[in-house]
Amino acid sequence: MLVKLSLAGVKSRLRDYLVLFSGLVMAAAIFYMFQSMASNETFLKSNSFISSIVIIFYFGTVLLSIITLVYIFYANSFLMAMRQKDYGMFMMLGAKTGKIAQMIFVETFFIGILATLCGSVLGLGLSSVVNHLLTTKLAIQVQHFSPVNEKAFLVTVIFFAVLFLIAAVANASSIAKKPLLTLLRENSTPVQVKRRKIGLLFEAIVGVIFLGLGYLMMDMLMTLQLFGIAGALVTIVLGTYFVFHSVIVFILSLLKKVDTIALKRLNNFTLSQLSFRMQEYTRILSMVAMLVALALGALTVGLGFRNEIPKMADAVAPYDLVLNNSQKVDQQKVADLRPTSNATYQFKEDADNIYYVTDEFDQEPITTVEYQTNGKTAKKTYTGQEMQENITTQDAIRSVELPDQQSKEIHLVSATDFAALDLPIGQLQVVQVKDFQDQLKSIQALAKENEQNNPSAVGIEGMGMSGQKASAYEMYNIFFSGLEFMGFFLGLAFLTMLASCLMFKILSGAHSDVQRYRMLSKIGTRQELLKQSIRREIGVLFLGPGLLGMIHVLFGLQMFSAFLSEPYHQLWVPFGIFFLLYFMYYAVTVWMYTHLVLEQQG
Which segments of 317-414 does DSSP mark as H helices, in order? Predict the structure, then answer.
């Protein structure tokens, strides 16, 4: 009987439980995905380059664990608030407190375990998608990766089972301690909303000042360092709280005094509803705003690191492709790249010396990357005459030579002297293309062929392989792709849970709003006007934290200016992803709220 009552309770609030369920499923799925990559020993041993980013996935797991813990307790408290009247009715009919506590325990734990199992299955799919992206979109070759990971599944189930066990005990204990009258009438308890205007104005000013200080500290992070991070965190959190506790309430009170706005249709009712809600929504809106900043920040920075890969490769490699002894390469393959620059330098070498023609470098000056005193790099070109006059500039040639050539003494000679040397002729070819990433596969194939043609280049890692840009790109790609995926999936998890939390809070007050909408309907208010009021009211509740969170991100990106050359590049991509998902939650919330307050009037 107890199990039947618990399942009946879940069924009666199925839509409300589905909101919680979706957030928990996504959290479990992403948790499993992170674990499946970081704990797959066979995969890591066979792909040593991937092991360098394992710490990234563990770090993401810790962040996800913390926010999941907060989300579970917060979302469950909303559900308990919605069902406590039902529990009170059971107690009036003679149910013992212990039995009610057991029923709550069963409901909470059942939903949690079911969400964890579904999330783990979804995590298998996400892991497969990540593997596909790693091997195709990011051009990373991985071996022995399997989305099915028993260890990751076990860790995920145990972690979430412990969380739900704690949540179930806490929920059962909380309901058991409340008196019967409190359970029956708590949702009807009025909220004190009257506040002095001078207090609102003072809080509004303080909130704006705190936000300004926080944004300033983020802008000066390189100077303030750890103090700046701690100071910005404290001031922005406080400023966010005061904005929702006073600034928005103050603006709403001003709008209610403007007759052209307040007296139009149901605007006065909508403004009054918002003013009433803001008193109890301050904490949830503040939390959602901070989570929006985290979610959108993770998306933006993750994609920002992705954009840095070609820039960093370009900063350390002067050419898109270097072909040593290019006389062994089919030049049609090079022509297929449609190069914008294609220079070939002849050379002859013996055991200790290597000879080049001065005029060839005069006609096609060689480009090299030089490190400046500020730690940045700059590209410079040198002619043959300049390299003859300044021997140190000959490093421009050494940077694209084979390792066994770099120790030899360079001689820049005339064409006549070069022809007189009784040595075989080799060719050094350097190529630039219009779009490196577009031609990446072809360039990688030629770089591989160059390695096969020159045994001394085999086994040299990273940029040491004859200055190949493809090698530098692959090295940066391996590391930053981990940051990109962590940012994307953490952002997705944060967004899912924050939107679910806000949805829960709004829907938990729907039952107490039925009477207000019923009264408006009885006096002749059209259904369309009621629906419009609902859309506007919920729109403000979603727009407030969303907009403030985006402002936090815009200022917060200054903290990453030391790591990202263009932190604001292509902001429309992460902002577009955020807006799309956030709007979906808004639309679902409006639909569910409308169903609850308008269809229950009869």
Answer: 331-335, 358-363, 384-389, 395-398
Residue 72 has a pLDDT of 74
- Which residues in the chain come in under a pLDDT of 50? 48, 189-191, 459-465, 602
Q: Which residue has the tokens 């400023």?
A: 239
Residues 509 and 277 sit within 8 Å (Cβ to Cβ): yes
Q: Half-sphere exposure of 139 toward its Cβ, with a 13 Å CA cutoff? A: 18
Residue pair 427/346 in contact (Cβ under 8 Å)? The answer is yes
**Whole-angstrom Cα Rg for the chain:** 32
Which token pair is 550? Answer: 């985006």
The Cα–Cα gap between 85 and 91 comes to: 10
**Angle at 252 (CA atoms; ends 248, 256), nearest 5 degrees:** 175
The string of pLDDT tens digits covering residues 202-229 is: 888 888 899 999 888 888 877 777 787 7
Q: 72: Cβ–Cβ under 8 A, 6 or more apart, which residues?
A: 24, 112, 163, 164, 167
For residues 501 and 560, the answer to whether their CB atoms sit within 8 Å is no
Give DSSP secondary structure letters for 295-318. HHHHHHHHHHHHHHHHHHHHHH-S
Question: Residue 345 in contact with residue 361, Cβ under 8 Å?
Answer: yes
pTM above the 0.90 mark?
Answer: no
Alpha carbon 87 to chain centroid distance?
Answer: 40
